[in-house]
């Protein structure tokens, strides 16, 4: 299985991110989820086979599941070569498109992006745990004393941050809300984020999965709030195996934790370029991404896209 590290499409490039390449289709976008992987703000020189397909197909799964809560930008998932041929009219493109788009891409409506990371936390973990130990707070929210690492919060909390390509994200403050012009939207962003999280949390529990925290992105389509980007994937969320959950310690996650652990143990100074991962770490990470897709959907990941 070849690993897609960079797309090369005969279409105008809208943006080139750490993981996704986005092409401009006028009032629509083509989002291609590559197999690139990043850690500690650096893109690694190797990919994770089929990772982009997990991100694409799992996002599509959740977009469909949560459409009754809030609209989203999804128009068409390109899951096979048959679908690829069907969408050429949507692309307004008559030439040949590469087969690798099938399984890892979708066509979405173009939205006016709201530059906020809408983070919802149901458990005290990661950076939230570090902040709580130091201040007793997470963002601007005071929590009860004596909580343990990975402990479930009394109720999910909304801790939005800024979203920037040039600086590290930081907690959103009143000045940010004013400068972004979202004073009339912030309450709705919080309400919708919490509703989606609670719906997904309850669904996941029935699958034996804990959603510890996640982040959402929103935009405006025809002046109406809509979910955009990715949704409830291992790249945007912290997923735990409920059967192994033990508060008071860090948890095994269905994400790129093997990559982070290996990089930390390698002695890398977190400055580019990042080192090449060994094959066993790549394989372990692939298995985690595939497993979470299967647990949520009850299906094996579509990797044969010929039909």
Describe the structure.
With 307 residues, the protein is α+β, with helices and mostly antiparallel strands. It has two domains: 1-110, 2-Layer Sandwich (Phosphorylase Kinase, domain 1); 112-244, D-amino Acid Aminotransferase, Chain A, domain 1. It has helices at 51-66, 81-86, 88-91, 127-135, 174-180, 186-205, 257-266, 279-297, and strands at residues 13-16, 20-24, 28-33, 36-39, 42-47, 74-78, 105-109, 112-113, 116-123, 137-138, 141-142, 152-158, 161-162, 209-221, 224-228, 237-241. The strands form four sheets. Strands 8, 9, 12, 13, 14, 15 and 16 form a seven-stranded antiparallel β-sheet that branches. The longest helix is centred in the middle third of the chain and has 20 residues, at 186-205. The chain starts with 12 loop residues before the first strand and ends in a 10-residue tail after the last helix. The mean pLDDT is 91.
């Amino acid at each position: 299985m070849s690993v897609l590290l960079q797309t090369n499409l005969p279409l105008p490039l809208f943006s080139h991110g750490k993981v996704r390449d986005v092409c401009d289709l006028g009032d629509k976008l083509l989002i291609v989820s590559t197999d690139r992987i990043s850690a500690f703000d650096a893109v690694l020189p190797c990919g994770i086979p089929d990772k982009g397909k997990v991100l694409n197909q799992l996002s599509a799964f959740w977009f469909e599941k949560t459409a009754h809560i809030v609209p989203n930008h999804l128009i068409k998932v390109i899951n096979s070569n048959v679908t690829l041929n069907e969408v050429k009219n949507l692309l307004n493109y008559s030439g040949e498109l590469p087969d690798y788009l099938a399984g890892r891409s979708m066509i979405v409506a173009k939205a006016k992006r709201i530059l906020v990371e809408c983070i919802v936390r149901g458990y005290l973990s990661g950076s939230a745990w570090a902040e709580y130990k130091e201040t007793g707070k997470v963002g601007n929210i005071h929590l009860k004393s004596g909580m343990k690492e990975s402990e479930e919060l009394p109720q999910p909390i909304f801790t939005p941050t800024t979203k920037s390509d040039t600086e590290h994200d930081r907690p959103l403050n009143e000045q940010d809300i004013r400068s972004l012009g979202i004073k009339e939207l912030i309450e709705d962003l919080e309400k919708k984020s919490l509703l989606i999280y609670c719906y997904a949390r309850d669904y996941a529990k029935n699958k034996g999965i804990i959603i510890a925290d996640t982040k959402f992105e929103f935009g405006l389509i025809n002046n109406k709030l809509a979910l955009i980007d990715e949704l409830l994937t291992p790249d945007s969320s912290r997923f735990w195996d409920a059967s192994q959950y033990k508060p008071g310690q860090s948890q095994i996650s269905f994400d790129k934790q093997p990559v982070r652990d290996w990089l930390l143990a390698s002695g890398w100074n977190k400055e580019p370029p990042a080192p090449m991962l060994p094959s066993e770490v790549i394989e372990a990470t692939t298995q985690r991404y595939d497993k979470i897709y299967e647990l949520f959907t009850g299906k094996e990941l579509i990797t044969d896209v010929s039909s």
